[in-house]
Amino acid sequence: MRYCLALDLKNDPNLIEEYEKHHQAVWPEILDSFKEAGILSMEIFRWENRLFLIMDTDASFSFERKNEIDANSPIVQQWENLMSTYQQALPGSKSGEKWQLMKRIFHTEK
């Protein structure tokens, strides 16, 4: 399954640069947590301070399972707290949720 999500970074060039540097050396435990949750691959693209994430998963993946894995990992919680210093919720987000699941509105077959 493929999921696409969006998020905004704080609109500060220095913070955006730091955020990108962190993503050039993602902690191994974070990558392990992706595998454990059933995430096969993940890409993040940026335009200005807007991020777009593409995530491909296997059949075992669910957001509930991913959230449970994350909540039970002190290292993942440390990473999420660090990333929160750079991130902000999209306008119109509910309860300050940052990453927002996007709705596919167009698709062509291969």
UniProtKB/TrEMBL annotation:
GO MF annotation terms: racemase and epimerase activity, acting on carbohydrates and derivatives
Pfam families with a match to the protein in the record: rhaM
Protein's UniProt name: L-rhamnose mutarotase
